[in-house]
Amino acid sequence: MKPVGKLSLTEFLEKISQKTDDGFGKQYRSFFADNKGSAELAMLASPTSGEVEQLKRAVAIMTESEKQNADTLNDEQVKKIADDAKIDAGVFAIFINGYALQR
Question: Inter-axis angle of helices 49-61 and 89-102, to 10 degrees?
Fold first, then answer.
């Protein structure tokens, strides 16, 4: 398996999808829940099935260039992709930020 930093965007999505609706992951997410947004990256530890479906829609409409350079997308590009995919821009931004941190 490739080192985490070398995962493609699609592989990163597959990796986080493995813990979809995981009971332990839900508990882990709840540890970080607060009104300051501290749970944001915890979403990637155990996304809900709805979040994964949204991310799959967004990744599916991205161009190859966007996928290859996803870790360098700016806020406007992320919002446009989310809007085009008709998904929650916050969920997509968390995913892209998590991917950038992994890279």
Answer: 80
22 close to 46: Cβ distance less than 8 angstroms = yes
pTM over 0.90: no
Dist. CA 29–CA 65, nearest whole Å: 32
pLDDT in tens, the chain (103 residues): 455 558 999 999 999 999 888 887 777 777 766 665 556 667 787 888 999 999 999 999 999 999 999 999 999 999 999 999 999 999 999 999 999 988 8
Residue carrying the six token digits 């839900």: 26
**Position of tokens 């409409």?**
61
Beta-carbon-side half-sphere exposure of residue 53 (alpha carbons within 13 Å): 5
Tell me whether residue 36 is exposed, middle or buried, using C-beta atoms within 10 angstroms of its C-beta: 0 to 12, 13 to 18, 19 or more.
exposed
Residues 6+ apart with CB under 8 A from 63: none
